Amino acid sequence: MENSLAHVAIIMDGNGRWAKKQGKVRTFGHYEGVKNVRRIAIHANERGVRYLTLYAFSTENWKRPKEEVGYLMSLPKIFFESYLKELMEKNIRVTMIGSLKEIPAEARKYFQGAIERTKENTGMVLCFALNYGSRREIVEAAKAYAAEVAAGKENELSEEEFSSYLQTAGMPDVDLLIRTSGEERISNFLLYQLAYSELIFDEKAWPEFDEDEFDKCLQEYERRNRRFGGLNA
Ligand code: V0D
């Protein structure tokens, strides 16, 4: 791929369904999903992606059964104890959007530790959307801006300046959004940042979405962009 992408975002859907289909419990799917986060992050970095944002835990996930939420909260420990060393070696920087506020202290600790350890890394940014909801993000941005105006800031706001009030401030707009497991919805993810994204709804469940499938998505993105370029040349 000659022309690498600035920002790929992925909704990692289908872990539970994938596990059930094999007669396993949903948490097995989440565990396999964690391994796939590593696989795809390493691969995207190799492909020259600059920002990879992964929707790991939405504000709606709290409505799941208690045991399942409890298991999800153990995943940061599993992920970072297994893979932080490798992320460091690959010069990957870990960040997050969303809110760690309601998250149990133990899970929060692993995330904050990883963010701190990798903050000087200059390679791909691996951004986790945790306890994230886009409408909430936009409302918070509007409130922050309104507060500055109330305090005397000049009231003239461009689309570009508004994006600096979002949690993704400093990140490029999303070029490509992938949602795994066949559902064709955005589910309150990056609504402002997706304005001009290509959208790919992939049939594979997240645990089985491998390097080849990721490359197919990049090729599809290139194909659509070539056509778009042709029409506009
Ligand atoms: C694996 C999506 C929740 C597929 C579902 C970084 C990928 C489950 C969290 C999480 C993961 C919970 C508390 C917290 C931060 C994150 C999570 C990872 C993977 C590994 F403070 N789900 N989840 N973390 N997956």
List the main descriptive attributes of the protein structure presented here:
233 residues; alpha/beta; Undecaprenyl pyrophosphate synthetase; 6-stranded parallel sheet; 8 helices; 46% helix; binds ligand V0D
Could you please describe the fold and organization of this structure?
The protein has one domain (7-132, 174-223): 3-Layer(aba) Sandwich (Undecaprenyl pyrophosphate synthetase). α2 packs parallel to α4. With 233 residues, it is an alpha/beta fold. It is globular and about 60 Å long. β3 (93-98), α5 and β4 form a beta-alpha-beta unit. The two termini are 21 Å apart. It has helices at 15-21, 26-46, 66-73, 75-89, 105-117, 134-150, 159-163, 211-232, and strands spanning 7-11, 51-58, 93-98, 125-132, 176-179, 198-201. It contains 8 helices and 6 strands; from the N terminus they run βααβααβαβααββα. It has a 6-stranded parallel beta sheet, with helices on both faces. Helix content is 46%, strand content 15%. The chain binds ligand V0D. Ligand V0D binds next to α2, β2, α3, α4 and α5.
